[in-house]
Amino acid sequence: MDPVETPTPSKRKVVVLLLGVAAGAAALAYSGIADRAKGMQEVEAWTERQAVPTVRVVQAQRGPRDQELSLPGTLNAYYTGSLYARASGYVTAWHKDIGARVRKDEVLADISAPDLDQQLAEARATLVQLQAAVQQAQANADLSDATNKRTARLVTQGWSSEERGDTDRFTAASRAAALSVAKANLVVQQAVVSRLEELTRFKQIKAPFDGVVTARAVDIGDLLTAGGTSGRPLFRVSDIHRMRVYVNVPQGFLAVMKPGLKASLHVPGQDAAFSAEVTSTANAVAEDSRKGLVELQADNPDGALWPGAFVEVQFHVLSNPDTLRIPTTALLFTKNGTQVAEVQDDHRVALRTVKLGRNLGNDVEIQSGVTLAQRLIDNPQEFLSSGDVVQIAGESALPRTASAE
């Protein structure tokens, strides 16, 4: 039997070296596999995070007790009179310029109307003729009546023929009718004279009421035509002791526009604020703008408010402090109506139907469907639906209950 050969020291080193190489290769392989698995897990986690949308949330707020509603308005005079020529002629003088304060019936301009004066003179002469004609017809009628009465007695006594009686009777009736015609002609001519006399009063253009001359479009020598109202008025007089303010108010606020509602007026270029109050509404809404016309009035004793000026009207509207408001950007319009997207504690979305109140511009009132504690998505995407998971901006990570599925 041959003796067993023992390995030499060199062979033992080779074996140890090979085992070390194998262990190193195994370690390298394990490290690579582990790094790859970790990388895949990170990629998977990143992908999941990217698949979950990040949203900003807002919460409902209570409205203030007193609400200030600011809207543009236009100032108008309490009364405005546009004066045109009622008598044809030439302007001989004007006495009041723009800015002048005038009293009622104060003369603003004089007109020379020779044609009108001639017509009046002729009409008065004709009136005199007709008055004489009435007197003559009255005398003839009286004579015929007396003759008819006398002839009627003679016919009864047999001293006159019936033919003569009929003739005198018809003659009396004819002259009585002629008297009626003469009187009617006199009445007509008196009306003509009165009309012309009334027109001659318009040779002086007078102020219709106390006020301020806000426009003048007439000068000496201008030819005026009676009845012309298509061009500019000769004068415009405005009563500015009290002003009217007209404001187009959105439909959502018309319900509170009751007579007596207080407001403040701010005129560009003036530091002072003016007080006004609602007096009436148009009781109609314009279809193109969905706004209603509201009239306010404001005292103007110093004349600081001018007709035609722009004014900012700030209504002092009492509001219900229990009414909640949210940004209009939090609304979601779906086939189910107007909704909001609530983020629940597990970061899942729940769509809630809400009932809207007044639109306040950036905010909107909510009558039902929202509480103060709810977190609502601002600018929600249209594809969101109930049950979707979202990430709230600013939070580090999703809860495990939301990310596990």
TrEMBL record:
It holds the Pfam family Beta-barrel_RND_2. It comes from the Bacteria. Residues 83-226 form the CzcB-like barrel-sandwich hybrid domain. Residues 246-316 form the CusB-like beta-barrel domain. One of its GO terms (molecular function) is efflux transmembrane transporter activity. InterPro entries: Beta-barrel_RND_2, BSH_CzcB-like, RND_pump_MFP. One of its GO terms (cellular component) is efflux pump complex. Keywords: Coiled coil. Residues 113-140 form a coiled coil. Belongs to the membrane fusion protein (MFP) (TC 8.A.1) family. This is RND transporter MFP subunit. It comes from Methylobacterium tardum. The lineage of its organism: Bacteria, Pseudomonadati, Pseudomonadota, Alphaproteobacteria, Hyphomicrobiales.
